[in-house]
Specification:
The chain is of the alpha/beta class. It is about 30% helix and about 30% strand. The longest helix has 14 residues.
């Protein structure tokens, strides 16, 4: 069972896609991830992008904890439909679902985001992930935006664009969560 951990929708259950199309983030990892984001003061009022969203658990947790706008992006139509049902069932304001390929969404101009979750399938190639990160840094991030990348603990550190600084990884068994911050050139301390 997947549920929202805390916030206005805390304890509410989420539907999850059936089959192997998605890999839900465990509750233990989500709890630790969101504790870190709260420590970084990255949630309240944040404009949030959840890439490879699956059921939408990460983005919906952010909305429950005070994110002002959340966009869930999921290419798999069945998973996107489940995410849409979760959005409707929870009734959280400011949350939308885009049933499109992540690469297409990040390549298009749009409003920048303060917080981005990137939780791709573990078999996504490192060069594809690097391309997504580069596109994000090319106009879709606000100054000091926080990026959260979830990968297999066997995967190497993501290739960060020049203006993205690593905050640090956290390892939870088979999962490693990488936290980074967008610091545009000339803004480094």
């Amino acid at each position: 069972m997947t549920r929202i951990i805390a916030g206005t929708a805390g304890g509410r259950r989420l539907a999850t896609p059936s089959g192997d199309s998605t890999r839900p983030t465990s509750e233990r990892v989500r709890e630790a991830l969101f504790a870190r984001l709260e420590h970084l003061d990255a949630l309240h009022g944040a404009s949030t992008l959840d890439l490879y969203a699956g059921s939408g658990a990460l983005g919906l947790e952010a909305a429950s904890r005070g994110a002002s706008r959340v966009v869930l992006v999921e290419r798999d139509r069945k998973a996107a439909a489940v995410a849409g049902r979760n959005v409707r069932d929870l009734g959280l304001a400011g949350v939308s679902v885009r049933a499109e390929a992540v690469e297409r969404v990040v390549a298009a101009p749009g409003e920048p985001f303060d917080l981005v979750f990137i939780d791709p399938p573990y078999d996504l190639g490192e060069e594809v992930l690097a391309g997504v990160l580069a596109e994000l840094a090319d106009g879709l991030l606000t100054e000091h935006a926080v990026l959260v990348v979830e990968r297999s603990s066997r995967s190497p550190e993501p290739v960060w664009p020049a203006d993205v600084e690593l905050i640090g990884p956290r390892r939870y068994g088979e999962t490693t969560v990488w936290f980074a911050e967008y610091v545009p050139e000339g803004d480094a301390a």
